[in-house]
Amino acid sequence: MKNKIIIFNPKSANGKHRIPNSILQVGGSIHGKHEYVFVDGNLEKDPWQTINTYFKTGEFKYFCSTVMPGPQLKQAIPYTKKIKTLYPKTITIWGGYFPSNQYRVCLNSGYVNYIVNGPGDNTFPHLIEALEQNNLDEIPKIKNLIYQDNNGANHKTPVEALINQDDLAKFPYQYLNSFYPVNNYLAKTFMGQKTLSYHSSMGCPFSCSFCAVVPIYNAKWKGMSAARIYEDVKYFKDNYNIDAIEFHDNNFFTSKKRVLEFSKLILNDNLSFWGEGRIDTINKYSDDDLKLMRKAGCKMIFLGAETGNDEVLKQMNKGGTQSGQMIKDFVLRMKKADIIPELSFVLGMPAKTEEQVYKQILWDINFIKEIKTINPDAEIIIYLYSPVPTEGSELYQQILDAGFSFPETLEEWIDPSWESFDLRKNPLTPWLKPYMIDTIKNFETVLNGYYPTVSDFRIRGYKKTVLKGISKLRYNSGFYKYPYEIKVLHKIWKYRQPEIEGFYSE
Ligand code: B12
Ligand code: SF4
Question: What cofactor does this one take (predicted)?
Answer without folding.
Answer: [4Fe-4S] cluster
